[in-house]
Write a structure and sequence with these properties.
heterodimer; A: about 80 residues; about 30% helix; B: about 20% strand; globular
């Protein structure tokens, strides 16, 4: 996990804007986009669906990737993860 | 080795089919291998000509307009699109129960939506249910 300062300065290799979609939209968008990220790459998912802030960290860890943390913005969240395999 | 899910879809109602689609999406995101068995009323919903016109709900029928309006507002895909997307993401097979198909006049695979894989007997469902890590009956 990274702290808020580190997360805010993190440059993601892939940014997914899933704002405006409800569950499971952001999760499916993340799943699809992860295929385009190289191992070791960082992906950022922007979501306005609060459930996603619980869902994606659990999913990322279960699938063997690293959940890095969440930055809360006005009306949405930026969720960061690292592809590990 | 991928975990396996076995889902029996008895319902032909859009509310329950949408819920099934959401659950299926979660399984697809986790790379689960999913076998779906479409039983009785489900086969009605999976028939080609009914996919777009079926508006039946299993519950809260007096809230039908609100339900469909909310799905649209929240950009929730039609139930069949969840199934289509899941098939693109992971190993999902959709099996139509032979008896169920016949009840609704579906004798051949072509009578059902293009994402249906085959028409099977109930023995296959029992075998898949025995082997699955997660079993759902909707």
């Amino acid at each position: 996990m990274l702290n808020q300062e580190e997360l805010k300065n993190l440059k993601a290799d892939k940014v997914i804007d899933a704002r405006g979609t409800a569950c499971p939209g952001p999760l499916l968008a993340a799943k699809r986009a992860l295929a385009e990220v190289s191992v070791g790459g960082i992906m950022e998912i922007m979501s306005s669906d609060e459930g996603t802030t619980k869902d994606i960290p659990k999913w990322a860890n279960k699938m063997g990737h690293e959940f890095l943390g969440i930055v809360e913005e006005a009306g949405y969240w930026r969720i960061f993860m690292k592809k590990m395999k | 080795m991928a975990k396996k899910m076995c889902m029996a879809i008895f319902t032909g109602s859009v509310d329950k089919l949408t819920a099934a689609g959401v659950v299926l999406s979660g399984a697809a995101a986790q790379d689960m291998e999913v076998n779906i068995y479409v039983l009785l009323m489900g086969a009605y919903a999976f028939k080609k000509e009914n996919v777009d016109t079926n508006k039946h709900l299993a519950e809260l029928n007096d809230k039908k307009d609100e339900f469909f309006a909310s799905l649209e507002r929240l950009k929730v895909p039609k139930w069949i699109e969840f199934f289509r997307q899941a098939k693109e993401l992971t190993n999902v097979k959709i099996h139509i129960c032979g008896l169920a198909g016949k009840i609704w006049g579906g004798e051949k695979l072509e009578d059902f939506v293009d994402i249906a894989d085959d028409i099977v007997g109930i023995g296959e469902y029992i075998s898949a249910a025995e082997e699955a890590d997660v079993n759902l009956f909707i």
